[in-house]
Amino acid sequence: MSFQLRVYVPDHPLIKHWLAVARDQNTPNALFKTAMTELGRWLTYEASRHWLVTTETEVETPLAPCAATMINPQVPIAVVPILRAGLALLDGAQTLLPLSSVYHLGLVRNEETLEASCYLNKLPDTIDSETRVLILEPMLATGGSIMLALEELTRRGVNPELLRIISVVAAPPALKQIGETYPQLRIYSAFVDEELNDQGFIVPGLGDAGDRAFGT
Fold first, then answer.
1. Per-residue confidence of the chain (216 residues) as pLDDT tens digits?
2. 73 exposed, middle or buried (CB, 10 Å; 0-12, 13-18, 19+)?
3. Do residues 140 and 150 lie in contact, with contact meaning Cβ atoms separated by under 8 Å?
C-alpha cells in the first residue's frame, strides 16, 4: 500500500517497551498514563528530527566563543491534542516542545455510525502556513476523527507538508484515508495493527485509550 511510505514506526526499545505496557490489560490506570506520556515523548522526538527549524548562532562558553545550533524561536510550533485521549500524550510532547502553542480539539465518535463530530474547537481562525503542527491522536482507527481534524487545520491555512501526526496504534483504514487525501503528510506510530473489529476498535490495539488514561 502506498501510504506505508509515509508511516514511520520507530525501531526504538523504549517505544516498544512502553507500547507493551500500554497494551497490557492488567496495567493500572496510573501506569497506563505514564506509558502514554513516554510514548508521546519518544514519538515526538522521532517526529521532530527533520521537522524543527534551526538557526546558527554563537554562544560564550566559560572559556571562549563557540559556534552553536539552536531551535529558531521565530518559526511557530503548535500542538493539537485530540480530546480526550490525545491529552495523555501531551505532557511528553510538551517536554520536548516547551515553546509550542497548544490548541485543543474535542471530537467524539458515534458508536453506531462511527462518524465523528466536534464538540470543542479551540483552533484560531487562521494559522500561519509556516507553522509546524503536531497532532496527538493515540488511535488511528476508522479515520473519521483524524480526517475531521485535518480538514479543520488545513482550512485555517496549515500546510500539510509541515503536519506531523503522533499515534500509539494505527490501522489501515485510517492510514488509507489520510494517504489518499494528504499524501505529503507524515505519521509516527508505535505500531500498525492489521484490522478493526465490528465496533471500529483496533485489534489487538490497547482498548479505549481515553478511558484507560483517565480511569473512566
1. 444 458 999 999 999 999 999 999 999 999 999 999 999 999 999 999 999 999 999 999 999 999 999 999 999 999 999 998 999 999 999 999 998 999 999 988 777 777 888 889 999 999 999 999 999 999 999 999 999 999 999 999 999 999 999 999 999 999 999 999 999 899 999 999 999 998 889 999 999 998 999 988
2. exposed
3. no
CA torsion sign for 105, 106, 111, 113 is negative
Q: Record the pTM.
A: 0.91
Looking at CATH, the fold of the domain delimited by 2-214 is given as: Rossmann fold (3.40.50)
What residue type is 210 in one-letter code?
Answer: G
Beta carbons within 8 Å of 18's beta carbon, 6+ residues apart: 35, 38, 39, 42, 190
Would you list the domain boundaries of the chain? 2-214
